[in-house]
Amino acid sequence: xxxxxxxxxxxxxxxxxxxxxxxxxxxxxxxxxxxxxxxxxxxxxxxxxxxxxxxxxxxxxxxxxxxxxxxxxxxxxxxxxxxxxxxxxxxxxxxxxxxxxxxxxxxxxxxxxxxxxxxxxxxxxxxxxxxxxxxxxxxxxxxxxxxxxxxxxxxxxxxxxxxxxxxxxxxxxxxxxxxxxxxxxxxxxxxxxxxxxxxxxxxxxxxxxxxxxxxxxxxxxxxxxxxxxxxxxxxxxxxxxxxxxxxxxxxxxxxxxxxxxxxxxxxxxxxxxxxxxxxxxxxxxxxxxxxxxxxxxxxxxxxxxxxxxxxxxxxxxxxxxxxxxxxxxxxxxxxxxxxxxxxxxxxxxxxxxxxxxxxxxxxxxxxxxxxxxxxxxxxxxxxxxxxxxxxxxxxxxxxxxxxxxxxxxxxxxxxxxxxxxxxxxxxxxxxxxxxxxxxxxxxxxxxxxxxxxxxxxxxxxxxxxxxxxxxxxxxxxxxxxx
Length: 482
Ligand code: PA5
Fold this sequence. Notes:
Order of helices and strands: EHHHEHEHEHEHEHHHEHEEEHEHEHHH
Bound molecules: 5-phosphoarabinonic acid
Largest sheet: 5 strands, mixed
CATH architecture of the largest domain: 3-Layer(aba) Sandwich
CATH superfamily of the largest domain: Glucose-6-phosphate isomerase like protein, domain 1
């Protein structure tokens, strides 16, 4: 199998976190953090980091889990022959990571020519919604004989994914017969429990593990992300190498030089001391657009809580994550960010060398005294970089706290670093906020009501609750003939 070797990591590719524009020297004391404010919190930060290390969360060791890589390699060898398309059926943490990996490796217009040099070895389609409109379109474009469905679910029971599975299983079975159907599936799920695991055992479907101590949104560096990566020609070792490099920078070092700890502290203090209740992640990189979506789920679902980590009621906490893209959102959101409420911490991601540049100018458009003559002699990359700096400066002038990640290149190795630093920062921020960053009770309620309405056994009461809600009298409705 040919894997993407474009991303050759060099030490100078390591991510640099520039914190200058969150300091009071730059922003003033109302919106900037002072040395005193940060120093006061250092003992608490040390405790938070120690608690995360002590808890030994499964995601920390994923870069070293050779056993999981071996599973991925085995299933690739067993399942991919004759398949030109991989369809991920999964939602939330089971979909956002694979999508971020694919787009970072292959770019937003993604496919290039499948199988051509420099392009992915297979199509990857990710079905993370059950709108029948979209799902029907997706299914219609598949050649069942050449398709592998990678069904990803930690619990092995999420209703959206299970519903999709039944449709996909039927389609394949109709096309190739019941006996051959399992050859068109690969499952990624809990090592022991759940419907997917049982079904894999029953029908001999190839199956890969999401370790018990790794939650959905922290699972991108398990087979959840690594299998779709490898199946489409991306070397998973680049992702794991990036995560390992970030681990080395964050673990066993002083908190002041630990990027994850500092990232967590700045977000926490900006929220609690400076009222920055919104965290905007704005990569200047098309390839990282979907990384910002992955971050949005991680930050929201992990930290938006109304119980303390020991389960007592507490005042709700949680910064609202917002995803943006430079320069696109300069023409949509930046007005709000510079002149609207000063309630946001912005994080920009800057890629110094995207690996390609394009000269500007065209005869008849940029010569002589043309209005566009100022573009002649410049490149698209130059304009892109100038706009990043200009935006950063405008934000600083407007006293908007802004973090900047700087990377020389962009690719799977850089993405592996980003995944790991944000997962660690989330765990540390959970300690600072005193919430459990690893549960999601607010998500479970909706799931259980749905199970009840669909008649799943054991959820009768939930079904009745939803029925009562649906039969209530609407108090205020416009339109619809009422
Ligand atoms: O982070 C989480 O745990 C969730 O977002 C899950 O990823 C999502 O609900 C899907 O769950 P599962 O993987 O069990 O199908």
